[in-house]
């Protein structure tokens, strides 16, 4: 298959090399041409203009930075994109603009699918990892075998074309938020004189990841009674963390926001509910 790939940063480069290994002809473009040109050593054909890269392509893939970059690259190509070519966007984009983009291209009679990934560049090169996909099921079923050649698993999330964008943001929110919490853990460790490299020995005997799905389900919909750990007791522990760090001249960054949510729950009379109730949205009644 003759594939055009627009955007050859770290992820795009990995995907292109996987496509080449799978026997496809790949025409590449990148805003910084040197990144696209580097792929010629692996068998790709690089173009200085995106319009030249997509001419004659059977399918077009994108891996760019955000919604604005996707539109800035694609919209000027409307008149040169091959009519039969499907567009598959792997960019992490926002939910509402993704829905609007999919509707806009559908109105033009084009197939546009959003397929963001939970993968590192090495996974893209290896063809392993998780690719999300949403949209018309028949179209998604048709494209899935090709996407499996780029990833270890394709997860169809439903007919709404923006659902993959939503689930990608959900996942990244957890990953980025986890880094924030771990940052506070390192701040507290520094404050009490324990090297961070030693503090992470906590996870040799304690695996909070095993609780993640059950905790998420409780935040999402309860039940919040009987409480396994009350809002009021959770707030006490957060106070200890913040005050201990502050007594050594260290400010925690994330836990004060958690404290504010716990305080709000207590103020509405939910102090005796399970601590997960303080994080639920919309907030449950006491």
From TrEMBL:
Domain 3-hydroxyisobutyrate dehydrogenase-like NAD-binding, chain residue ranges per copy: 165-279
Gene3D superfamilies associated with the record: N-(1-d-carboxylethyl)-l-norvaline Dehydrogenase, domain 2 (1.10.1040.10), NAD(P)-binding Rossmann-like Domain (3.40.50.720)
Keywords, alphabetical: NAD, Oxidoreductase
Domain 6-phosphogluconate dehydrogenase NADP-binding: 2-158
Lineage top rank: taxon: Bacteria
Pfam families registered for this protein in UniProt: NAD_binding_11, NAD_binding_2
Residues in coiled coil: none
Molecular function via GO: 3-hydroxyisobutyrate dehydrogenase activity; NAD binding; NADP binding
InterPro entries hit by this protein: 6-PGluconate_DH-like_C_sf, 6PGD_dom2, 6PGDH_NADP-bd, HIBADH-like_NADP-bd, HIBADH-related, HIBADH-related_NP60_sf, NAD(P)-bd_dom_sf
EC numbers for this chain: 1.1.1.31
TM segment ranges: none
Matching SUPFAM superfamilies: 6-phosphogluconate dehydrogenase C-terminal domain-like, NAD(P)-binding Rossmann-fold domains
Catalytic site positions: 168
Protein name per the record: 3-hydroxyisobutyrate dehydrogenase
